[in-house]
Design a protein that fits this description.
Pfam families: E1_DerP2_DerF2. The protein is mostly beta strands. The protein has one helix at 109-116, and strands at residues 2-15, 28-36, 44-52, 56-58, 63-70, 78-88, 91-94, 105-106, 141-148. Strand 6 (78-88) and strand 7 (91-94) form a beta hairpin. 6% of the residues are buried.
Length: 149
């Protein structure tokens, strides 16, 4: 399997009403979203990533755009390593992988994509509109997803 580090995403999570209250709140917000690639020599390099609004309210409406460069053709078997971190009291802490969310390793991603979207079926929007594949192989090249929800 070809291990892929897609990127590292850094975020700071804070209670929406944290000032002056010790109660737990179900509404949270993502403050000061930022991101960085782990290494620029990876097969997949994120060139730009935008999340709006900033701060993001959870739950809430989210728009995102991404421009990524794939340096080599990616085909099965394909493994993706994703690292997510958050800032806690000035220290960056890795968000653990819980129920396939967080800093996870996704094995056999091609098989997982085929299970979600049967081969021969069109990719879901907005991927279809912008010609972004949702099945392996992923050809070498640049992929751009403009501001989408």
């Amino acid at each position: 399997a070809l291990p892929i580090s897609v990127g590292c995403v850094f975020a700071s999570l804070a209670d929406a009403n944290e000032r002056g209250s010790s109660r737990r709140h179900s509404v949270r917000r993502l403050e000061a979203f930022s991101w960085a690639n782990c290494r620029n020599a990876e097969p997949v390099v994120i060139k730009s990533l935008s999340i709006k609004p900033d701060p993001v309210s959870i739950p809430g409406f989210l728009r995102a755009s991404v421009f990524a460069s794939v340096g080599v053709s990616l085909q099965a078997p394909l493994t993706i390593h994703l690292t997510l971190e958050k800032e806690v009291a000035g220290i960056w802490v890795t968000i653990p992988c819980i129920e396939e969310l967080g800093s996870c390793t996704y094995e056999n991603i091609c098989q997982q994509l085929d299970a979600l979207i049967p081969p021969g079926q069109n990719c879901p929007e907005p991927l279809f509109t912008y010609g972004i594949p949702c099945h392996c192989p992923f050809k070498k090249g640049d992929y751009n997803l403009p501001d989408s929800s």
